[in-house]
Amino acid sequence: MNDRLQNGALAGLLVLTLVLVGFSLRSRGTVPASSDVAATPTSSRTASPSPTPTAASGPVVFLGDSVAEGRSATTPRKRWTAIVAGELGLKEVNLGHARTGYLRIGPEGSCGDAACPNFKDSVRAAAAAAPSAVVVTGGGNDTGLDAEAVASAVSATLTGLRKALPEAKIYVVNPWWDLREQPDSLDDLTTVVADAAKATGVTYLDTGQPLVGQPDLMVASGTNPNDAGHAALAKAVTEALASTPNG
Q1: In what order do the strands lie in the sheet with 92-94?
Q2: Residue 37 in this model has a pLDDT that exceeds 80
Q3: What is the mean pLDDT of residues 78-99?
């Protein structure tokens, strides 16, 4: 082969080599690396919005006497108020005080150095708990007191709760009795409570008398329920609540 042909062959080989190298580099530049392919959808993915938290409901406040206080229950969890609060799915705030009523205050020194307040004077404490519901029970301790004064205290209690808590559900239960002989004034008091509930826009719950004539539901003294009695009261209240509109 002469020098001219040899030089031409070398030039052609060089051109072919450059073309192949350029094609290879161009191909590598246009194909993303595998890590880039995997990263692309992840980096562009939009996070799902978190659900808006639901505002927690206020507690349920209980006003009442020793039966609401649960003094004879073996544990606080077994008193009827705790059971009802659990059924409602609400935190319990218990403002029950032994030997009190709508009008009657507790014995001197029953709440620290002072007498425990009656229901009427417990309205402010109930409102301070910012409840979504209030349940008022009791009144039996008011039997024997001046009927007009008791009626006025019942009205003041329910009116005060309705005014202080316009958005809350407020329930008042018929006055309960125990194993003692029932006084004639209890029927009159029950009527007073029912009428006051209607006048103030409070829901009246007629639970009957779950403890009357039921010694197996009472402690030895006969004035307070045992655990079975508290369960019976809770059942009566929850059934009455279920039967009320929007209960």
Answers
A1: 92-94, 60-63, 133-136, 169-173, 203-205
A2: no
A3: 98
- Does 51 have pLDDT greater than 70? no
* Predicted model pTM: 0.77
Class of domain 60-242: alpha beta
